[in-house]
Description:
The relative contact order is 0.14. The protein is about 35% helix and about 15% strand. The protein has helices at about 35-50, 65-70, 115-130, 145-165, 180-185, 210-215, 230-235, 250-265, 270-275, 290-300, 310-315, and strands spanning about 5-10, 15, 20, 50-55, 80-85, 90, 110, 135-140, 170-175, 190-195, 220-225, 240, 245, 280-285. The longest helix has 17 residues, at about 145-165. The strands form 4 sheets. An 8-stranded parallel sheet has the order 3-4-5-8-9-10-11-14. It has a two-stranded antiparallel sheet with strand order 1-2. A two-stranded antiparallel sheet has the order 6-7. By secondary structure, it is α/β, with parallel strands linked by helices.
Amino acid sequence: MTPTDKARIGKTGLAVTRMGIGGGALGGLYEEVSDTSARATVEGALALGINYVDTAPLYGHGLSERRVGQVLRERPRDGFVLSTKVGRLLVPAESPIESFWFKKPDPFEPVFDYSYDGVMRSVEESLKRTGLGRIDILFIHDPDDHYEEALGGAYPALHKLRSEGVVSAIGAGMNQAEMPARFAREADFDCFLLAGRYTLIDHSGLRDLLPLCLQKQISIIIGGPFNSGILAGGAVSGAKFDYNDASAEMVERVRRVQEVCARHSVPLKAAALQFPLAHPAVASVIPGARSAAEVEENFRLMAVPIRDDLWKDLRAEGLLPFEAPVPKSSEE
Length: 332
């Protein structure tokens, strides 16, 4: 699988590489990341031919957007695709507010706001932080408990921004598949960022959301392809799934997947990165990265040849749904 191949976002003219990078780690997700490492991460991705970078105001309380912008604004504007998010405004704080999620963030406090005016203000502030003249894709960020406000306030704002050309595509970014399916039925979205819900071990997006998006020509971008780490490190003590300690059942499931991969001499991470891209609704997968080395490793793993027998064995052992599309081997 070639990471630099491109796929179109919905019915828009945007085309993103099949591998992008997620910007949560650039905001210090779980551990501090230096300015130097953050810059090298984004520069390394661009040097490999990756054209898609995702970020959000929440990530490091503005830190990720600021760092991403420092690199991207030095590049030709048509050479990359940038997505960011709305739904949390950043209120100045006297000192950095370190949370469970982000270490050494910028001195702002994120506050939920899915109103029309809140979205407009959020976009203006994101443009200032990045130093860019436009955003390519704008997502409503985690409106799990704010559906009505998101649909009645944020969505009209996004629709207006798209109609005015301020953004090229609009969507929602969530860790669930059910609410994006509601959005797809009730509004006019171009794409959804689906985090952790269509992966090698979580296929919940396959039931309703992905077929619906395929029907409506809405693109899916896969975030969290390693499900918070368990598909990166494998079935080990302390493994994380969905931001928490993995259950014994999930550890056992991953152990079985890992055994099948080992029989075929395929790294678990390679299978995790490549699997979601086989679905025709999926445009890109965006693993997070905090160093150029991590980007390079993911890039290499995306290109690891995987024979069809691996997917057949996973299906035979009940670890993949038979209806889930799987990558086709170039060797067979």
